[in-house]
Structure formats: C-alpha cells, structure tokens
Amino acid sequence: MGQPVFLYDGDCAFCSRSAQFVLKRIRTDAAVVPWQGADLEALGVRREDAEAAIQWVEPGMRRAGPDAVAVLLRRAQWYWKPAGWVLSNVVASRLTWPLYRLVARNRGRLPGGTAACALPQAQR
C-alpha cells in the first residue's frame, strides 16, 4: 500500500454523500473508498473499527473519525489546511469526537441519510 486510503461507510447514504463531497471538492492523494469494498486485512483495519468511524490509513499512520478528517484536510489544497490544523489540535480533538459520535448516531436523520444509516451494520 503506497497510497493513503480514506475509508467510509458505503452502506450509509449520508457517509456516501460526504465522500462524494470530498471527491468533488477536496483534492487528496488518498483513495476514497467504502470500507465494504476494501481489503481491510491488508490495510490493517479491523471491521469493527471501520464500522465505528471513518478511517485514514497509510504506512506508519492510522487515524479515525475527526482525526482522519484532520489528516485529509491538512493534505488538501491550501485553503483546507487551516481547518485540518485546527482539527488536529488536542483541545479541538477532544471537542470534535463527541460531536462526531453524535452525528454518527443520528446520521439517518441528517440530509442525505436514510433509515438504513440508523441500523447496525449486521442488519443492513
């Protein structure tokens, strides 16, 4: 694996729309792929971790949730980098994780979400 990989939940409409935003608006050298179609074992990512949060994976580094978004933004165009650095701040990270979990729990209610987003992975 030479290229970074940004994993998201391809069974969730909200997550898929968010990934489409990344692909259209944020230039990244990462492959943006649903975890369901990725070789998680080769990436060193447990299925439970992929189900729980988005993942940034590259040799020597793995980040999840808002920390994964921070890496993505830091590696994007210059105008995204400040947001990435703010998210990377320890204080900001402590604040963004609860917000990330709140969004993840309620993603079926958000724009672009579907009822399937609210179901546990095993029931989709």
From TrEMBL:
It comes from Natronoglycomyces albus. GO terms for molecular function: protein-disulfide reductase activity. This is DUF393 domain-containing protein. Pfam families: DCC1-like. InterPro entries: DCC1-like.
